[in-house]
Design a protein that fits this description.
The protein is mainly α and about 170 residues long. It has two domains: about 45 residues, Homeodomain-like (Arc Repressor Mutant, subunit A, Orthogonal Bundle), CATH 1.10.10.60; about 110 residues, Tetracycline Repressor, domain 2 (Orthogonal Bundle). It has nine helices and no strands. Helix 4 crosses helix 5, helix 4 runs parallel beside helix 7 and helix 8 runs antiparallel to helix 9. The radius of gyration is 17 Å and the shape is globular. The N and C termini lie far apart (about 40 Å). This is TetR family transcriptional regulator. One of its GO terms (molecular function) is transcription cis-regulatory region binding. Pfam families: TetR_C_28, TetR_N. Keywords: DNA-binding.
């Protein structure tokens, strides 16, 4: 199946953010990275806000697809435990730098934040003091760890921590 230009633009934007940071994302740098004209980008994304919203949706959709694949079903067809298991397995990997940057950027705009909140609401327990939420916080820590700590987790340590978190999921 041939990919759409919109998807090619969004993938190029994600790669550019990972390599150069969000502050270096412009129509000029993105046109060069995507191999398109600036007017071609503007056709799909008339404003920077539209482009950033598109990137947030693109990444959030990819994450939800991953969660569905891990769980074997959409969120609404899973139990709380099945959803949390998918979250732990997904977030047990190290965050892609572009994902982490965009998650942080989402705090700057209610529309961006809503994109991620939609996925969170379907898949994660609400913040509280429950054991399930503690497991979710562990998953967040695994996801961000290698970007905020001076010593990355080894593959073996990461796998052991994921297994330990999975054992803590309430049934």
């Amino acid at each position: 199946m041939r990919r759409s230009k919109r998807d090619l633009i969004l993938d190029a934007a994600v790669a550019l953010i990972a390599a150069e940071g969000l502050e270096h994302l412009s129509y000029e740098t993105l046109a060069d990275a995507a191999g398109l004209s600036k007017s071609g980008l503007i056709y799909h994304f008339p404003s920077r806000h539209d482009l950033l919203l598109g990137i947030h949706r693109h990444l959030a959709d990819a994450w939800e697809t991953e969660l569905r694949t891990i769980a074997g079903a959409p969120a609404e067809e899973c139990t709380d435990s099945q959803r949390l298991r998918a979250v732990v397995i997904s977030m047990g990997r190290t965050a892609d730098l572009a994902e982490l940057i965009m998650i942080l950027d989402a705090r700057s705009d209610p529309e961006y934040k809503a994109v991620w909140a939609d996925v969170d609401t379907r898949w994660m327990p609400a913040p509280d003091t429950s054991d399930a939420y503690l497991v979710q916080l562990t998953a967040y820590g695994l996801w961000a760890h290698d970007h905020v700590h001076h010593r990355p987790l080894s593959t073996d340590d990461r796998e052991r921590l994921i297994a330990a978190a999975l054992k803590q999921i309430p049934t």
